[in-house]
């Protein structure tokens, strides 16, 4: 029986055992609230007119604020269990006292019914709120998300049973007997609080105050300040205020019309009880059958409009028909939906609110703001019904006006809800990126400014950081180091200033060509070669020794510069000698030759090509930069060929980007030529992204369906970033949607493979599953990059980062953000892939349904991996073929043994050897 309930409710045994006492707590609280309201309404209307109701509603609003201040004050001084047990006991004892007083006074005291009416108003606000506070305390986020539907049905069932109990008890014992029933139920609730508290999480200490560490001197003022400072909280408060005002007006209409139609007190109480029972049954049906589906289908934002729309239709019905049936329909449009769809929707509005603020803000809004809405509704009734003589039917016109305000508030709240979800996950993304930012990038400026005036060792270290940085800018204090006492510091400072293109210190460097240190003189001569047109030979003859490469560089620069002294052939001869100097000994000469070529006329292609192909990384980088600076088209192929080398990749991309649209056609040819090395093709999207023109973007779009999954990933990433940089450019939505659908289906297929392999591998940390999961991570990133291209107005990057978070609140916010902004047809297949509450088995089941088939066994799963375009996944499948001794894949392994991909090739060779050993062992057994 328990197992059947677990399956029906979607809860495991432990969650059901923890949720049931809270369900019972809410059930008894709501049943007590319904019974007490029915009794108080009947007793009050037996002594007073319906037009007098607004006075007590206004009094309730004021007393709720006082009661909530006291409640929070006690919450500063005791834990939640003691606070709730104390408040429930207080309400139970006072209910018992009212019952005895009513019985003794025999309906003689009209003041008693006023007190009872106000007491019920305060109790019915505070008691249900306590249940949800306790649930938030003792359930984790994931447990709450799964359990709140079941717990919430306790409120609806409480309405039903409370209405039935009212009708039965009043018929047999009279209206005032309901107060005794309320007292008994509240004593039981106090006992349930003790039971629930025993099963609280370990992190909730027994001595922890109910209000946490925050202790406002004026609790209500502190909460009001938080609301005033937040546009989102103001939107929630306005929504609840207007909703309470509107439903108060509608409630008065219902009571007034009911009193006209049913004048007898006991019959009126029984009518209210019957109505509550029927409304509760309808609400329970909605809760069980529609609430979840509605929220999944249309989301929180659209669900906010359901109740006001229904109220608008009900008000029109009362205005046109004016009968008790029409009034009951108006009341039902509020009461039936409030504890089903509307309750879940409003609770979800607090999801983006920081946890530190939720307790105070929610308590304030759910009590003070809510009752302020009731009081405002009472004032409206006083003004129009008592003051201007509007009949209950004519009050529908006023109600329709406020429904319009309600719809406006719902629109604002929906917009703020999405924005606050985005802001919460965006802040998490910013924090994550800041935490992972390289330390040197964050601290270089501070470190240099603090150490450039320190010891020689500290200065040398600071300058070395500048040399490592991609950014060629240097701190202004480096100029002051040209006169440092240490020659190594002077030499390093001249080299950095030359690299940064700082010509402002030419006069100071001119003086350094007479420096006693050879290294400093050499760096000074190289600096002046770039920034001073004077014949270097004149300096060399008059100043003494220099390093040979500095003399050669200076002479080449002088001979190659346009003018009457230009001699290109002589410059080529000297430059060739510099380039031909071999090994580490000639490295500095080759490096200076490469740097020199970037400022020489474009007449040294042969020398530049030799330097581009140099085995030394720094020499090659300098030559590649020279190709970009000179825009030498003849060497673009040489640069593209070196794209696959990680040490040169960024330098090549930067240089090729300087050609702009002139090489887009060439890049397209390389990109679409499948005979080219895959390692080179996969880097071309980065070059096209760096160019960033419309033509480059068009080439990327052409390649978005390439079968090479790594190339496709880089293409999608490049398109994603270009879309952010140029949002005005049109997107081929049909093509991107097709690619997105293919990626989503591929991700579901990966779950099929993972599920099929899951029970067949002995080692839980085996590389097959590891490789598959790594491939799935890339699939996830491609899906989100495509979503960003399709929906650039939404922060899908932050949603992606939020989904990776181990913080359940951040994860849930990311899921809710996607659920709020994605179209229904997209979110219904995307969100189950990333929601923590959806199990792998459920995803596999969805995959079987969407793909129209399932994977039968592990060999079929390995075959799917082998057919993948992902080389990493193919290598994992090769490993699996060897580990599982799948001999039927031997021809595939033979083919992969010659694959250009080194990882796949090595894995296939190793797997093939395992198959051969297995075959040999099997043959030996057969021979025996």
Helix content: over 70%
Q: Strand pairing plus helix content: what structural class?
A: mainly alpha
Low-confidence sequence ranges: 434-445, 541-546, 759-764
The global form is elongated
Largest sheet: none
Give a verbal description of the structure:
- It is a single chain.
- By secondary structure, the chain is mainly alpha-helical.
- The chain contains 42 helices and no strands.
- It is elongated and about 120 Å long.
- The two termini are about 60 Å apart.
- Mean pLDDT is about 75; it is low at about 435-445, about 540-545 and about 760-765.
Tag the structure with descriptive keywords.
928 residues, mainly alpha, elongated
Furnish the topology, listing elements before pairings:
Layout: H1 2-9, H2 13-47, H3 53-75, H4 80-105, H5 110-138, H6 141-173, H7 178-198, H8 219-229, H9 231-261, H10 265-303, H11 306-320, H12 324-348, H13 355-387, H14 395-436, H15 439-451, H16 456-468, H17 487-499, H18 506-512, H19 518-531, H20 536-543, H21 548-560, H22 568-580, H23 587-597, H24 605-612, H25 617-630, H26 636-641, H27 646-657, H28 664-672, H29 678-681, H30 684-691, H31 694-702, H32 709-725, H33 733-757, H34 767-790, H35 796-803, H36 808-821, H37 824-834, H38 840-851, H39 858-866, H40 871-883, H41 890-896, H42 902-927
């Amino acid at each position: 029986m328990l197992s059947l309930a677990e399956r029906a409710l979607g809860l495991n045994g432990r969650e059901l055992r923890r949720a049931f006492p809270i369900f019972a707590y809410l059930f008894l609280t709501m049943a007590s609230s319904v019974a007490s309201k029915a009794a108080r309404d009947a007793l009050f209307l037996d002594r007073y007119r319906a037009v007098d109701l607004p006075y007590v509603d206004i009094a309730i609003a004021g007393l709720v604020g006082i009661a909530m201040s006291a409640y929070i004050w006690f919450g500063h001084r005791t834990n939640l269990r003691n606070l709730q047990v104390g408040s429930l006991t207080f309400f139970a004892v006072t209910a018992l006292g009212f019952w005895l007083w009513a019985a003794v006074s025999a309906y003689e005291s009209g003041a008693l019914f006023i007190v009872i009416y106000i007491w019920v108003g305060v109790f019915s606000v505070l008691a249900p709120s306590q249940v949800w506070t306790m649930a938030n305390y003792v359930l984790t986020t994931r447990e709450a998300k799964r359990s709140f539907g079941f717990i919430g049905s306790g409120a609806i069932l409480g309405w039903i049973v409370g209405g039935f109990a009212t009708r039965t008890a009043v018929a047999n014992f009279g209206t005032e007997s309901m107060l005794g029933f309320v007292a008994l139920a509240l004593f039981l609730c106090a006992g349930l609080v003790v039971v629930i508290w025993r099963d609280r999480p370990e992190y909730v200490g027994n001595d922890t105050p109910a209000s946490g560490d925050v202790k406002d001197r004026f609790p209500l003022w502190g909460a009001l300040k938080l609301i005033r400072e937040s546009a989102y909280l103001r939107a929630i408060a306005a929504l609840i205020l207007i909703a309470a005002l509107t439903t108060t007006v509608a409630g008065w209409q219902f009571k007034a019309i009911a009193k006209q139609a049913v004048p007898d007190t006991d019959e009126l109480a029984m009518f209210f009880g019957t109505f509550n029972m029927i409304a509760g049954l309808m609400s329970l049906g909605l809760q069980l059958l529609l609430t979840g589906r509605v929220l999944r289908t249309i989301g929180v934002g659209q669900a906010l409009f359901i109740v006001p729309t229904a109220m608008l239709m009900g008000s029109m019905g009362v205005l046109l028909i004016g009968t008790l049936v029409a009034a009951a329909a108006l009341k039902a449009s509020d009461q039936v939906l409030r504890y089903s769809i509307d309750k879940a929707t409003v609770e979800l509005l607090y999801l983006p609110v920081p946890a530190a603020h939720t307790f105070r803000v929610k308590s304030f809004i759910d009590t003070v703001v809510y009752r302020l809405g009731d009081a405002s509704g009472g004032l409206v009734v006083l003004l129009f019904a008592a003051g201007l003589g509007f009949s209950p039917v004519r009050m529908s016109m006023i109600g329709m006006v406020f429904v319009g305000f309600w719809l406006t508030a719902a629109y604002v709240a929906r917009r703020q809800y999405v924005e606050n979800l985005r802001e919460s996950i965006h802040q998490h993304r910013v924090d994550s990126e800041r935490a992972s930012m390289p330390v040197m990038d964050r601290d270089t400026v501070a470190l240099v400014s603090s150490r450039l005036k320190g010891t020689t060792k500290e200065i040398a270290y600071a300058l070395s950081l500048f040399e490592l940085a991609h950014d060629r800018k240097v701190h202004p204090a480096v100029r002051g180091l040209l006169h440092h006492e240490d020659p190594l510091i002077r030499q390093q400072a001249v080299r950095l200033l030359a690299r940064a293109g700082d010509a402002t210190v030419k006069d100071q460097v001119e003086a350094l060509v007479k420096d006693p240190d050879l290294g400093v003189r050499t760096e000074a001569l190289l600096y002046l070669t770039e920034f001073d047109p004077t014949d270097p030979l004149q300096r060399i003859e008059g100043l003494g020794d220099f390093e040979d490469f500095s003399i050669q560089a200076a002479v080449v620069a002088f001979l190659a510069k346009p003018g009457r002294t230009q001699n290109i052939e002589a410059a080529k001869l000297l430059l060739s000698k510099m380039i031909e100097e071999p090994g580490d000994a000639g490295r500095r000469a080759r490096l200076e030759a490469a740097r020199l070529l970037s400022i020489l006329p474009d007449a040294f292609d042969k020398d530049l090509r030799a330097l581009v192909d140099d085995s030394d990384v720094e020499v090659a980088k300098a030559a590649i930069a020279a190709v970009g600076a000179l825009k030498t088209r003849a060497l673009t192929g040489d640069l593209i060929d070196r794209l696959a080398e990680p040490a040169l990749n960024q330098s090549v991309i930067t240089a090729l980007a300087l050609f702009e649209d002139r090489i887009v056609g060439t890049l397209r040819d390389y990109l679409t030529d499948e005979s080219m090395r895959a390692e080179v093709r996969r880097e071309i999207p980065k070059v096209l992204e760096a160019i960033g023109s419309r033509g480059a973007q068009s080439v990327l779009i052409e390649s978005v369906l390439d079968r090479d999954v790594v190339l496709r990933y880089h293409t999608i990433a490049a398109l994603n970033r270009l879309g952010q940089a140029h949002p005005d450019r049109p997107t081929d939505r049909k093509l991107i949607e097709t690619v997105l659908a293919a990626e989503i289906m591929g991700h579901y297929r990966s779950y099929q493979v993972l599920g099929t392999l899951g029970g067949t591998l002995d080692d839980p940390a085996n590389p097959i599953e590891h490789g598959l999961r790594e491939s799935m991570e890339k699939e996830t990133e491609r899906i989100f990059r495509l979503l960003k291209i399709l929906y650039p107005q939404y922060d899908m990057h932050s949603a992606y980062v939020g989904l990776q978070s181990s913080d359940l609140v951040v994860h849930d916010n990311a899921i809710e953000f996607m659920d709020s902004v994605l179209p229904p047809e997209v979110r219904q297949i995307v969100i189950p892939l990333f929601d923590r509450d959806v199990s792998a088995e459920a995803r596999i089941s969805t995959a079987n349904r969407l793909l129209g088939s399932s994977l039968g066994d592990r060999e079929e799963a390995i075959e799917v991996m082998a057919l993948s375009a992902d080389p990493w996944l193919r290598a994992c499948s090769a490993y699996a073929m060897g580990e599982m001794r799948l001999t039927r894949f031997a021809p595939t392994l033979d083919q992969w043994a010659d694959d250009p991909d080194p990882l796949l090739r090595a894995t296939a060779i190793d797997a093939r050897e395992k198959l051969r050993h297995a075959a040999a062992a099997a043959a030996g057994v057969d021979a025996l």
